[in-house]
Structures are given as C-alpha cells and as structure tokens.
Specification:
The protein has about 675 residues and is of the alpha/beta class. It is built from 26 helices and 20 strands. Helix 5 links the parallel strand 5 (about 115-120) and strand 6. Helix 22 (about 545-555) runs parallel beside helix 23 (about 575-580).
C-alpha cells in the first residue's frame, strides 16, 4: 500500500552551489559546530577563510528513560499504529535504551509490522543497520511542514496513535499539525541537547562577534542557535550579539535551522541547495562578500587582524523585537509605494480557505475559532497556500472578529462558519459593555501567528497583517452577526450620535493597538477591511465614519503600507481616500481605471477582479485578468487582487491559472 519516497529537492530561497573559484578571501568565519569541528575548520580554511570553530552543543542520553521502555511495550502490544523517526542519532539512542530492558527482536518485529515514517536519509541508514526498511521517507530538505505534507499525501492518520521520536526539544508545530489531523500523539524523547562541557571557545566566538571581529556566522543545527543565545544571555551580551549578526553574513545549513533562526528573530542570508556541510561552506564562501557589501554598505571587504584578547563589552541596549525581513524591494512593497515594477504583483484575499483541500483537511479536525487561535496551524495553512499558488504576498490567517472577545463580546462561529455574537449591543446604554482594549496581550495568538508565518515564508514574500475597520466591527457587535439591512446599526447611529461616536472611538483605538502590535511582530504591511461600509451613503460616511478612520490611520506606525479596503458602494471611494491609506482596495463594482481616477493617481490601488470569474473557464479568466491589467495601463502602484475573497466553490487550478496569467500578461517591456 505504501512505498518509500526517494530523496528529492524542493524550491527554497537557496544559494546555488558555487564554482571552485569561490573563496572567503580571508574573511573571519565563526562556525557553531557539534561533532565535526575539525572537518569544519579544514573546509573553511580550504575555501580561504579564517576559521573560528566552537563546539556549541552535545547530545545527552536520558538516563533510565522509563518513557522509552513504556513506549516500546505499548508498541509491542499493538497500541501504536504509526511511528515517526526524526533523527538517526535518535534511533541509535532509542535502540540502545530498549536493548537494556526490552526484547530487541520483538521490538524490531513490531516496528516492521506498522507504518514507519522517517525524516531524511540519516534515520533510514540507521534503521537499515537493524534490518528495518521504513515505509515512507520524507524528502530533503525538510521542516515539520514537509513531514506533514508527506503524511497528507501518503498516510491517513485520523484516529491513529502515532509514536513520535523527538530530539532535544519538542516540535510543537509538528505535534499540533498531527493532532489537527485527528491523530493521537505519544512523544518519546530519547536524548536532550546540552551545552558542551567546555564553552570557552563558544564564549570567545560570541564576544568576538559582539566586538565586530567576525564576518561570517555558520549554523549547522537549530539547537546550536538556541544554545548560542543561552550563552549570550548568560554573558549579558544578548542584544549586542543580535546586533552583531545583523552586520554579518549568516549562513544556515538548511530549512529547519533557518526556521529556528527566523523564529528567534535572527537573520538568515545564505542557505545552500543541499543541506550538507560542504555545500554550506561553499555557498557561504561564494555569497558572503556580496552579503557583507549589502549589509555594511561597502564595495569590498577584507579581514582585519584577529585579537586574541577579548575586550570589555558595553551594556546591552533595549531589545529590538522586530522580525528580520529582506524583501523591502519586493514587487508588492514597491507597488504599495507607487514605484515601478518589472510586473504587476498579485495576492488574493482569502487565498487560504475552503476552496483548498489542504485547508479543508485541517478544518475537519477543529472549529474555525479554535483554528484562528492556533498559531501553528494558521501559519501552516497560509504558507501552504502561498507556496502552492505562487503569489507575491501572504496575509496572516485569522478573522476580523476575535478582537471583539477581549472587549466583552461573546463570539461563536456556528455551523457553516457564520459568526454569531450572543450579547449584541442594541441601545446607547449598552455601549459601555464594549470594553476598552487596554492591551493586546489577550490576542497574543495573533502575534504568534504573525511571527510564525513570517518565519516560515521565503525572505522575498512580504507578510500582511489585518484588522476589521471600526464600522464593520461595530456592525457585527450591534447586529450580532451579518445583516442585509443593518437596521440595528443605523438605528443606534441615527438616534444617539454621541453613543455611536463613543463606540467607534473605542474600536478605533483598539484597531490601532492591534495593528501596531502585528507590525511590531513582523507584518510588513497591514490591511483594514471595511466589509460592511457599503451599506452607507456618502453623507453618513462623512459624518459617522470618516473621523474615526482618520484617527486609525493617524495612529498607525509610520512607514508601513496600509491597504484601505471597502466594498459595496463605489461612491464612497473619494471619502475613503480622504480618510487615509497608502493603497486603496476596490471591489468589482467599478472599473479599475475609473476607481483610480476617483482616488487619485498619486495613490496605489489594489484589485479588482470579480471573484466569481474564477468559476469560469481558463480562457475567460485570462481575458478578464487582461481587462483589469489593461485598465491599470502598467501605471506604477497597481496590485492585482480580487474584489473580495476567493469563493469556496472555486477550483484551485483556476486560481493558479489566474496567478500565472497575471504574471505573464503584466511583464513590463524594456527597451
């Protein structure tokens, strides 16, 4: 039924294998190594670098590991359905512990009778030493996402008990992904990572980085990253160490290490095509000089003499919590700023949604609100969508309404994902039930989603945060859900304008805090969704909405593009432009060129294909996409999008066809 998946490759933002002529040119290379320090030093010196190799971790078996013994007995007695081996070292430690307490042959026979999944060739090689052939091998390079995608393709895990051989520290994202697919996960930790017995060389490398005496940093394991930060914190130089890496060329051996670096808010500049030590050193030698030119603002680099003594380090400055991002020159952000681009960037509202089988598989295991509060799964579904569609930007997976919960609203998503607020505000006297959002601590799951999504995206894909606009949030809070007439909303608005202004001001302040927190967590742009504002006429918008929208835009972090998106009434566009926003999002109820004239050509525009067009055949999709692009006339500042979110009935292949068509049709001709 199952077969071993042979090794393969996937597209990553990697450095190609350089030619033999590549050289570090005497750059000073700090390498944080585990077991092969001598080999690493020889490789660096062979490529013309000054090598400073410091052991940074060691594997420590867990003595008298009762957990492993209990797990082995459960597997032998048929209580484990699937086993996942994450590392070769882990397999060895597992077998060594089992052999002391459990019949080895019975255990091996039990493993051969169930589905076994291995992450890469190293555990495969160790299992073969014990006469075992795994059922499925996850191709390299990989992270926990590739483990899950391989499982989705080959192994049904719903209602199955999975034994997960862990290493060092728990992979909470993998566990959450398995549980979301309906599996029961039994984690088996066979060893832990610790600092080496002698950390003198590690401390010397850290302080040299702090003092500017290293040019390149290389990491070959995610656990090295954790240990290095531990020692930096112990030395009291954590902030200075982070700042030091920002001016260096940082090389990571592969996706898992890169992901850890990004999650810990450290830069990743170089990643080889193959996650091998030799490829890492060669790629670093080839790319480090150009990386340093970019980071330090010089055209050439040469090493300066190494100091054997480590000098005094100044006290650390306050920590900077922003996630590094190297895509400021991306198509999307250039278009947001109204700058010329080689082609029109495209992303799609609701690009991770029910139209995708991958999303539906996750949603079958959890409620929508629970999904929104699970950062690992939110990041997974969006990153999957971005990679599959090939779009130019990602937007965090979340919803407009969770912000209302800490403000006192009793929110539920009923069958069919319709939002219901069980304690709606229906009178002026009830406005104070909507509490002030004093902090966003209760919404930290959204900030974690921002950080984890940013960490998992390619470095050239910007991440968009978002929030509902005050009028749309007020409408939900008052109506208790969606509405056709907005009777209750307009009644409060007309009957008691002071109470309405109190409500809107409170929501405006909450939105500002919420979006600024997303920006601080790593969002490179934000979008305000005013999904229901089209129910108003221009005069009502001017009186009841415009002042509060101005307050929102005035309070947002400077320099971050803000997309102002409203639907339903093109007559409001001039007033929405007056309210603010560096990019105006428009729906399909107005031609793009007419909308651009209304908002002014000094403003970028986003839109505006009717989402229903994606239900047509490919030729019609292409024709309608060309029509939108023709109306934009290659003017700088156009971001292609739908006029609203992708409909659940949309074929995925049609969405991909749209993305491909926009990329092809919008390429600018050069002379």
């Amino acid at each position: 039924m199952f077969k071993v998946i042979r090794r393969g490759t996937r597209s990553v933002p990697a450095t190609n294998m350089p030619s033999d002529s590549s050289s570090f040119s005497a750059l000073r290379v700090a390498s944080f190594e585990s077991r092969r320090a001598a080999d690493m030093q020889r490789l660096i010196e062979k490529m013309g670098g000054q090598a400073f190799v410091s052991p940074s971790m060691r594997e420590v078996p867990i003595e008298e590991n009762r957990e492993v013994i209990d797990f082995a007995n459960r597997l032998i007695t048929g209580q484990i359905d699937i086993i996942i081996f994450m590392t070769g070292v882990g397999v060895r430690h597992l077998m060594a512990e089992i052999e002391r307490h459990v019949d080895r042959e019975r255990f091996l026979a039990a493993v051969s009778d169930i589905i076994s999944i291995v992450r890469g060739p190293k555990p495969v090689a160790v299992l073969r030493e014990f006469g075992l052939a795994p059922t499925v091998c996850v191709p390299e390079p990989n992270t926990w996402r590739e483990v899950l995608s391989t499982i989705d393709a080959h192994v049904p895990v719903a209602q199955q008990t999975i034994g997960l051989q862990e290493y060092g520290q728990p992979n909470t994202s993998l566990v959450a992904g398995l549980e979301a697919r309906g599996a029961r996960v039994e984690r088996v930790t066979v060893y832990k990572w610790d600092l080496p017995g002698d950390i003198a060389l590690l401390e010397e490398n850290l302080l040299a980085i702090v003092n500017g005496h290293r040019d390149v940093a290389m990491f070959t394991s995610s656990h090295q990253v954790v240990n290095v930060l531990r020692v930096a914190e112990r030395l009291g130089v954590l902030h200075r160490f982070r700042r030091g890496l920002e001016t260096m060329a940082v090389a990571s051996i592969g996706p898992t290490t890169s992901e850890t670096l990004r999650e810990l808010e450290l830069p990743v500049d170089i990643e080889p095509e193959h996650n091998k030590m030799g490829h890492l050193v060669a790629a670093a030698a080839a790319k480090a000089p150009s990386v340093l030119s970019r980071k330090r603002g010089h055209s050439t680099f040469s090493a300066v003499p190494t100091f054997s003594a480590v000098h005094h380090v100044a006290p650390a400055a306050p920590e900077n919590q922003n996630v590094p991002f190297s895509g400021g020159d991306s198509l999307f952000l250039r278009a947001c700023r109204g700058e010329p681009v080689a082609r029109t960037p495209i992303w799609l509202m609701r690009q991770a949604g029910r139209y995708m089988a991958e999303y539906r598989a996750v949603r079958e295991k959890t409620t929508f609100l629970e999904l929104c509060k699970n950062p690992q799964l939110c990041a997974e579904v969006m990153i999957t969508a971005v990679q599959r569609l090939g779009v130019d930007a990602a937007i965090i997976f979340s919803d407009l309404l969770p912000i209302l919960e800490p403000m006192g609203m009793d929110l539920e998503f009923t069958h069919g994902e319709g939002p219901v607020i069980h304690n709606p505000i229906r009178a002026a006297a009830e406005v104070d039930r909507l509490m002030e959002l004093e902090s966003v601590e209760s919404l930290d799951f959204v900030m974690q989603t921002v950080r984890m999504t940013r960490a998992g995206l390619a470095n050239d894909i910007p991440l968009i945060g978002f929030a509902g606009a005050p009028f749309t949030l007020a409408s939900y809070a008052i109506e208790g859900g969606g509405s056709r007439s907005f009777l209750h909303t307009k009644t409060l608005m007309y009957r008691d304008p002071p109470a309405w202004d109190t409500l809107m001001s409170r929501l405006a302040r909450a939105v500002v805090r919420y979006l600024n927190a997303q920006i601080q967590s790593g969002a490179q742009a934000v979008q305000l969704f005013d999904s229901w504002v089209g129910c108003l006429g221009p005069e009502d918008y001017r009186r009841f909405v415009l002042p509060h929208m101005r307050a929102v835009f005035a309070g947002l972090a400077a320099g971050v593009p803000v997309i102002h998106f409203g639907t339903g009434n093109p007559a409001l566009l001039p007033l929405q432009a007056e309210a603010g926003g560096s990019v105006m999002g428009v729906d399909w109820r107005i031609d793009l060129d007419d909308a651009w004239r209304l908002i002014g050509h000094d403003r970028a525009i986003q839109g505006n294909l009717d989402p229903a067009v994606l239900l047509a055949d490919r030729d019609e999709i292409r024709r309608r996409a060309k029509e939108v692009l023709d109306r934009a006339a290659a003017r700088p500042g156009h971001i292609f999008n739908l006029g609203h979110g992708i409909l659940p009935q949309t074929p995925v292949d049609n969405v991909i066809a749209l993305v491909d068509a926009v990329k092809e049709l919008s390429i600018r001709k050069t002379t």
